[in-house]
């Protein structure tokens, strides 16, 4: 009799843990044979914005820069230098850069790696009384000697998780969700 009353509670608790603690929504690739000690100086290429949120690319690029600097993992080229060098290439999106252009940019900026990427989604909507924000960012680190991708990851943050739905919470700002997304993303490189 006691088992019958405990079993539903145990099943509910297990399901809540599985749904509520479902991981960090990061998909990552790291080149197994690449020596990351070679990368000392990097440039962050402004993230392409593939979302409907007009400021998402610039916002995510600033957060990305801040998080890379705070990690102290690399020396980072100033954004103005990057913009100046990119002005020499007539591409609309940085994802359109060729291997030769990546190698050339690397030489001009004197960097061993370029961070490229995009904001794939940045959206907000209201659900009940709470504002729900969701951000997805994809990024990669390309070494500039041969133009090879040595790290790539995609991360999603925000939305409304199990506990937020259960407790009726939400209301994280777009900046908070973007920062969380970038931290998860970079965690796959630094951890």
Task: Give a written overview of the molecule.
The chain has 191 residues and is α/β, with parallel strands linked by helices. The protein has one domain (24-190): Rossmann fold. The chain contains 6 helices and 7 strands, in the order αβββαβααβββαα. It has helices spanning 2-20, 56-71, 79-86, 99-109, 162-167, 174-190, and strands at 26-30, 41-44, 48-49, 75-76, 113-127, 130-143, 149-158. Strands 1, 2, 3, 4, 5, 6 and 7 form a 7-stranded mixed beta sheet that branches. Strand 5 (113-127) and strand 6 form a beta hairpin. The longest helix is centred in the first third of the chain and has 19 residues, at 2-20. It is globular. It starts with a helix and ends with a helix.
| Count of spatially separate domains | 1
Provide mean pLDDT, rounded. 84
The outline comes out as globular
CATH class categorisation: Alpha Beta
* CATH-assigned fold name: Rossmann fold
Largest sheet: 7 strands, mixed
Q: What is the string of SSEs from the N terminus onward? A: HEEEHEHHEEEHH
Report the CATH architecture: 3-Layer(aba) Sandwich
Strand content: 25-35%
Number of helical stretches of at least 4 residues:
6
């Amino acid at each position: 009799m006691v088992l019958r009353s405990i079993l539903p509670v145990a099943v509910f608790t297990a399901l809540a843990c599985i749904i509520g603690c479902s991981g960090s929504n990061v998909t990552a690739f790291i080149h197994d044979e690449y020596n990351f000690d070679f990368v000392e100086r990097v440039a962050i290429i402004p993230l392409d914005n593939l979302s409907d949120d007009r400021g998402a690319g610039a916002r995510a690029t600033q957060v990305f820069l801040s998080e890379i600097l705070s990690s102290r993992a690399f020396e980072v080229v100033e954004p103005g230098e990057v913009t100046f060098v990119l002005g020499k290439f007539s591409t609309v999106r940085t994802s359109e850069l060729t291997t030769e252009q990546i190698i050339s940019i690397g030489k001009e900026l004197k960097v061993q790696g370029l961070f490229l990427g995009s904001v794939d989604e940045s959206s907000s909507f209201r659900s009940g009384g709470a504002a729900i924000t969701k951000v997805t960012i994809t990024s990669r680190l390309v070494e500039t000697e041969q133009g090879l991708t040595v790290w790539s990851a995609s991360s999603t943050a925000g939305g409304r998780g199990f506990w937020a739905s259960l407790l009726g919470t939400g209301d994280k700002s777009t900046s908070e969700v973007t920062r969380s997304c970038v931290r998860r993303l970079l965690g796959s490189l630094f951890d």
